# Entry
Amino acid sequence: MNFDRIAVVGAGAWGAALANVLARAGRQVTLCARSAAAAQRLNEHRESARLPGVQIDKSVSIIPMPADTSEQVAVLLAVPSQCLRVAAQTIAPTLPRGTPVIACSKGIEHGTHKFMTEVIAESAPDALPAILSGPSFAQDVARGLPTAVTLASSDAVLVAALARALGSPTFRLYHSTDLRGVEIGGAAKNVLAIAAGIVAGRALGASAAAALVTRGFAELFRFGAALGARPQTLTGLSGLGDLILTCSSSQSRNFSFGVALGKGNLPDPATVPLAEGVFTAPALIEMANAAAIEMPIAAAVADILARRASVDEAIEALLLRPFRAET
# Structure
């Protein structure tokens, strides 16, 4: 399988970083910007405003949306999770049947409670949905620093070939057929990273941070197990690995958003860098409640974001939970 022509839809930090890493792997890459004006600016400056200081590889072709995908052998959707449906619908008319369309965002769609590959399947019926997730910051990937992530699709042979084609010595792709496990890890860890940021912003200490991440992972694992995810996926790169990264670094937008909450601020999501966990939290808790899955930390984050509880009230409620056996 020769995956030599690849389109990346979305020219933000992650899209630009992926375009660079794919170009370094020897692929013919087309980066699709949201408008003609955005494409023109990128062609003139060869730098995404979301990824300052990193030049887009000179071999990358930059065009505006809507893009003709008829000649592409794979498409990466590097747009926010709540925008993914529109992006998939936009490429659908020219997409050849069986083309891998890879979601590169981590979240759950509002209202429908659909995961990203489910959104792709509904919006682009000819696509073969896939998901790329794992512990990765756009700056690291764009600069060629060593990174390992997971690529998942229902087709075991194709996803293995696709991982070999997209990967490189510094961008190592492990492949899986556990779509749900990979998607759950990516979505839930963003919510838990906000909680970790709150702990840091409140200066509750390293012991509290360790407890938060550990008990948060227990929640993620319970949720994943109930929805059929494989344990090795949840303890792998796209689950525990991504949770560790986003709960421990200010490079994480979700962690930084949580720090602001912990310091007494409730930032307007429209005025700060995108924190996917803000939009995922209510959908995650609605799904957990419907399935009677206990996720107290994630629920506390959802309550804070919805202003149903203050940070102090949420912390007190967690601390006053009954003593119990560790599970």
In short: The mean pLDDT is 94. Strands lie at 5-9, 28-33, 61-64, 74-77, 100-103, 128-133, 147-153, 171-176. The longest strand covers residues 147-153.
